[in-house]
Write a structure and sequence with these properties.
By secondary structure, the protein is α+β, with helices and mostly antiparallel strands. The protein has one domain. Helix content is 62%, strand content 8%. Strands 3-2-1-4 form a 4-stranded antiparallel beta sheet, with no helix packed on it. The longest helix has 32 residues. The chain is elongated, with a radius of gyration of 20 Å. It starts with a helix and ends with a helix.
Length: 168
């Protein structure tokens, strides 16, 4: 796999993770007609009834925010460092960092699906809705696939360089 394609995939996965700040991950509609939209940075409400209070604190989605920012920063670091990498040790280090980033993204996905998807709807007595613009919960899955493809390309490049070194 070409280094440019790997760099592009890491860069694109960072941009897609950044889209989570603008796209709601899940929408909830309760029996009073109030829409709750779960973003990475918090929960927004669109209320049709007056006097509806939000049952969540402002730090409710702080773990999501931290995990998303870490994934974005590591993806940008890897995508810009691939071009500067010349030695085999640098590629191996980037491969290890990419595996760590895949693990952090896995924690983000697990946190979204296991905790936030189930626990957000309980206090407001609403079921999650995945209608359009609320497809943001699937973005970390897409970025995980892109990071796995790019990381496997890095591994193939490392193996290729090691096999060439054995021939010499």
């Amino acid at each position: 796999m070409k280094q440019r394609l790997q760099s592009f995939l890491f860069f694109l996965s960072a941009l897609l993770t950044g889209v989570l700040f603008f796209m709601p991950m899940v929408s909830y509609l309760d029996e009073y007609g109030t829409y709750y939209k779960l973003f990475v940075y918090g929960i927004n409400t669109v209320s049709l009834a007056q006097g509806v209070e939000l049952p969540f604190s402002s730090i409710y989605t702080l773990p999501l925010l931290i995990l998303a920012v870490v994934v974005i920063l590591i993806n940008f670091y890897i995508s810009f460092s691939i071009f500067r990498a010349v030695k085999l040790q640098q590629f191996v280090r980037l491969f290890k960092i990419s595996r760590m980033n895949i693990a952090v993204n896995g924690v983000l996905i697990a946190t979204l699906f296991v905790y936030y998807l189930m626990k957000t709807g309980a206090p407001i007595a609403a079921a999650p809705s995945f209608r359009w613009p609320s497809w943001g919960i699937f973005i970390p899955l897409v970025t995980m696939i892109m990071m796995l493809i790019a990381s496997s390309g890095l591994k193939k490049d490392i193996d290729k360089v090691r096999s060439i070194d054995r021939i010499r």
